[in-house]
Specification:
With about 500 residues, the protein is α/β, with parallel strands linked by helices. It folds into three domains: about 5-130 and about 295-390, Rossmann fold; about 130-290, no CATH class; about 395-500, Helicase, Ruva Protein, domain 3 (Orthogonal Bundle), CATH 1.10.8. About 50% of the residues lie in helices and about 10% in strands. It has helices spanning about 5-15, 15-25, 30-50, 55, 75-85, 110-130, 130-145, 150-160, 185-220, 255-265, 275-290, 295-305, 330-345, 375-380, 395-400, 410-415, 425-445, 450-465, 480-485, 485-490, 495-500; strands at about 65, 90-95, 230-235, 270-275, 310-315, 345-350, 350-355, 360-365, 385-390, 420-425, 475. It has a five-stranded parallel sheet with strand order 2-5-8-1-9, sandwiched between helices. Strands 3-4 form a two-stranded antiparallel sheet. The longest helix is centred in the middle third of the chain and has 35 residues, at about 185-220.
């Protein structure tokens, strides 16, 4: 079967699984199996778009369950994956849909929120595309504020010279009994006066245009950035309406913003701001006029349906426990409400109907108490890929500190550089930090890579406080310095008192 150029381009533009893993390796240490699974699932999306239309609907997304303790990289893998392919992404906690009884948010709200994010993203892209045109229109308005059109020229815009007199009736009867013939202007005299008036207005117009062009050049050069100017801008205030609805405002099928915009007249208010600020305000208003919102919404919904990623965190919190007698109504209720969304349904949003049939769902949970098999069978079947993430060891902590792009060591040294201090962290210090983080995780509670943040904050606490007053412009952090700063938590058995 021959593939069209468009279909071939879809697969050619998509990253290969190996490229996806390589990109994820720049930010996440280890967890190769999890990276491999998400890379395959992402590539299969591009492959699906190359199939025949009738088969595309039959190919379901390869949803994934990540099993691992907190801080091992589950959320980071999903977030980096979405950024990598520029896909609409949202992270939700499954546990927030239940709270000692089903009183949480409507599960469909995750799709509404994802659609909202997608619309904002596409709108920002369209705004960037029309930025140059919006800038030109904004500068025209600024010039109108800096150099208003003279009143005489304003009248000419709505009133043509020939409107000042009529020449059709020059042969008509004139009542000579009321006035003397010498006092009546001859029509050709009127024409001559009009020509003189037109000549004067033409000179004014030319002078105004020359001055405007000079101002335009100075405006582009930034000569008026701090000059105050008065502009008319749309009033963005909306009437306050508070609605208590458990299902969300979308269920009422009412867009209150549009409703009030239709009822209330467009209000403008005068505001005196600097030219630099006025340019941004006017650019935003002009960009909104240039953007086709119907096309934005259509594109956004298409991205959600074909490229959207929903990260369902804490899914183990809604899994039933074997120790319980009978079904857990609250947890099973949430699972059964989530099931249609994952299986594929149509969710009504304020932007239109959104189909969830091909949205990729990545679930994650520690599953310390429960197991994936405790989920209802229907939900288990919708997550064909299961991958277990390994707990981080001392070697992983050492790599996390130094290897990723914008690693922790780079972040903390860069923060000190803003105070003019060059900080050097030795290899021995990094090994000591990694060893201490691993020790605390083993002794207190394993919170994964997040432990490094608490350790680093404690280590740099005194430096950050004293940095503005330090005379030396260089600091070396070695193993002895690490031991000295963290001596209290090393000796004290109750490590949580200092770290957590």
């Amino acid at each position: 079967m021959e593939k069209s150029n468009v279909e071939t381009k879809v697969l050619a533009d998509a990253l290969t699984p190996r490229q996806i893993v390589e990109e994820l390796d720049k930010y996440i240490i280890g967890q190769f199996e999890a990276k491999r699974s998400v890379a395959i699932a992402l590539r299969n999306r591009a492959r699906r778009q190359m199939l025949a239309e009738e088969m595309q609907d039959e190919v379901s997304p390869k949803n994934i369950i990540m099993i691992g303790s907190t801080g091992v990289g589950k959320t980071e893998i999903a977030r980096r994956l979405a950024r990598l392919v520029d896909a609409p992404f949202i992270k939700v906690e499954a546990s927030k849909y239940t709270e000692i009884g089903y009183v949480g948010r409507d599960v469909e709200s995750m799709i509404r929120d994802l659609t909202e994010l997608s619309v904002s993203k596409v709108k920002a892209e369209q705004t960037s595309a029309v930025e140059e045109d919006a800038l030109e229109l904004a500068e025209e308005k600024l010039l109108d504020c800096l150099l208003p059109l003279p009143r005489s020229l304003k009248s000419q815009r709505t009133k043509e010279p020939e409107d000042d007199f009529e020449i059709e009736d020059i042969d008509g009867d004139v009542d000579t009994d009321e006035e003397d013939d010498d006092d009546i202007p001859f029509p050709f005299d009127l024409l001559e006066a009009a020509d003189e008036q037109n000549e004067t207005l033409e000179k004014q117009r030319e002078r105004h245009e020359k001055t405007r062009e000079k101002l335009r050049q100075r405006l582009k050069n930034g000569d008026f950035e701090d000059k105050p100017v008065e502009i008319n801008m749309k009033s963005r205030s909306m009437p306050f309406v508070e609605i208590f609805s458990p299902g969300g405002i979308e269920e009422m099928d009412i867009n209150f913003k549009d409703m009030f915009n239709n009822i209330l007249p467009n209000q403008t208010k005068k505001r005196r701001v600097k030219v630099s600020e006025a340019r941004q305000i006017l650019m935003q208003e002009e960009a909104e006029k240039l953007i086709d919102m119907d096309a934005v919404i259509s594109d956004a919904i298409e991205r959600v349906e074909n490229s959207g990623i929903v990260f369902l965190d804490e899914i183990d919190k809604i899994a039933g426990r074997e120790s319980r007698q009978g079904p857990d109504v609250s947890r099973e209720g949430v699972q059964r409400d989530i099931l249609p969304i994952i299986e594929g349904s149509t969710v009504a949003t304020k932007y239109g109907a959104v189909r969830t049939h091909h949205i990729l769902f990545i679930a994650a949970g520690a599953f310390h108490v429960s197991n994936p098999s405790d989920l209802i069978p229907e939900l288990q079947g919708r997550f064909p890929i299961r991958v277990e993430l390994k707990s981080l060891n001392q070697s992983d902590f050492k790599s996390i500190l130094t290897e990723p792009k914008n690693a922790l060591v780079k972040q903390y040294t860069a923060l000190l550089q803003t105070e003019g201090i060059e900080a050097t962290i030795t290899k021995e210090a990094i090994e000591e930090i990694a060893a201490l983080a691993f020790q605390v995780n083993e002794s207190v509670e394993d919170i994964g890579a997040r432990r490094l943040h608490t350790i680093m904050e404690k280590l740099f606490e005194n430096l950050f406080f004293d940095a503005p007053d330090l005379e030396d412009d260089s600091v070396t952090i070695n193993a002895d310095y690490v031991t000295g700063e963290l001596e209290a938590i090393v000796k004290d058995q109750d490590l949580s008192k200092y770290i957590l």
